[in-house]
């Protein structure tokens, strides 16, 4: 296969996850065409990648179907990461539906029309809503709660439509709680990490609502990027796949991990109030079977690295 056939079209490629995926693609001799409106993208980092000669940036928006169709021409495969965040989708459902639903459709329709070899879609564990049991399996009931989650679920359904009607080959990656270097400090899942670390650096104990039993499945962005590349290259396709560690880390456990990472001698304080206790942990059997992927970075190691990095920046 010549390199001209191995150009990957990456929407949202200048964002947090994209900036970890693109270097991995370059290591594997792909060319990359980033399609990003640069609203949150890192222009300096993208400029460095463009300077390699194997990356180009199309500064455009997935809401414009014609722009997507034109920009995708000649691309062998597609990675669709562009989306509006979960918090923003509640405060501005109009923009969320526009970007996450219309944008999804523009990308999927263009990929189906142009006969790309594979489309990898960044879905989300939020499609499950509040899980009835752990670990969460891909065949469990879906009950998305916000416009963001609803759009992620409908994206998977749309991919099924284009698979049936146009033969589109796709993998939908249901990312759990992504964290790691380069993430905006305002990000939904890292706000608790940042809040704890900021207090610990001041020698103050982290404050936990309730008993700290609410949990997340924290998955490092490097492992996320590896799953995207694995999905691009896997022989099996046309299924949603959970991408997490399979371990639910409670907020109380997270506080202990971060206390050790920062190296302060404090105990967390608990704020007694009613908390809707939600727990998350991925069943990652399918990720191993379909993608040959499993996580490599433990929560302890990942959080330690994050604390070290934030200390130097």
Fold and architecture overview:
By secondary structure, the chain is of the alpha/beta class. It folds into two domains: 3-176 and 221-243, 3-Layer(aba) Sandwich (Rossmann fold); 178-217 and 247-282 and 296-312, UDP-galactose 4-epimerase, domain 1, CATH 3.90.25. Helices cover 42% and strands 17% of the residues. It is built from eleven helices and 13 strands. It has helices at 18-27, 43-50, 65-72, 86-91, 93-114, 147-166, 191-201, 221-233, 251-262, 285-291, 299-312, and strands at 7-11, 31-36, 55-59, 77-80, 118-124, 170-175, 177-179, 207-209, 215-216, 218-220, 239-243, 249-250, 269-271. A seven-stranded parallel beta sheet has the order 3-2-1-4-5-6-11, with helices on both faces. A two-stranded parallel ribbon has the order 7-10. The chain has a two-stranded parallel ribbon with strand order 8-13. β1, α1 (18-27) and β2 (31-36) form a beta-alpha-beta unit. The longest helix has 22 residues, at 93-114. The chain is globular and about 55 Å long. The mean pLDDT is 94. Residues 8-244 form the NAD-dependent epimerase/dehydratase domain. This is GDP-mannose 4,6-dehydratase.
């Amino acid at each position: 296969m010549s390199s001209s056939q191995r150009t990957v079209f990456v929407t949202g490629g200048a964002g947090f996850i994209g900036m970890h995926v693109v270097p991995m693609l370059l290591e594997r001799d792909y060319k990359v065409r980033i399609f990003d409106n640069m609203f949150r993208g890192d222009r300096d980092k993208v400029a460095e990648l463009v300077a390699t000669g194997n990356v180009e940036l199309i500064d455009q928006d997935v809401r414009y179907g014609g722009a997507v169709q034109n920009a995708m021409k000649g691309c062998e495969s597609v990675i669709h990461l562009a989306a509006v965040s979960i918090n923003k989708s509640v405060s501005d459902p109009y923009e969320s539906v526009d970007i996450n639903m219309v944008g999804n459709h523009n990308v999927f329709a263009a990929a189906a029309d142009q006969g790309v070899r594979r489309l990898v879609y960044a879905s989300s564990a939020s499609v499950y809503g509040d899980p009835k049991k752990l670990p969460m399996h891909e065949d469990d009931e879906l009950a998305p709660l916000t416009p963001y989650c609803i759009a992620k679920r409908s994206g998977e359904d749309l991919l099924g439509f284009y698979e049936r009607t146009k033969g589109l080959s796709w993998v939908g990656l249901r990312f759990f709680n992504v964290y790691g270097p380069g993430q905006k400090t305002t990000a939904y899942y890292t706000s608790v990490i940042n809040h704890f670390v900021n207090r610990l650096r001041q020698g103050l104990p982290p404050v936990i609502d309730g008993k700290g039993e609410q949990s997340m499945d924290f998955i490092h962005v490097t492992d996320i990027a590896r799953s995207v590349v694995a999905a691009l290259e896997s022989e099996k396709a046309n299924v949603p796949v959970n991408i997490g560690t399979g371990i639910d880390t409670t907020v109380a456990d997270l506080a202990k991990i971060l206390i050790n990472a920062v190296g302060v001698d404090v105990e967390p304080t608990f704020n007694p109030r009613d908390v809707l206790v939600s727990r998350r942990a991925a069943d990652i059997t399918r990720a191993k079977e379909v993608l040959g992927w499993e996580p490599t970075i433990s929560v302890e190691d990942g959080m330690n690295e994050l604390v070290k990095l934030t200390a130097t920046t």
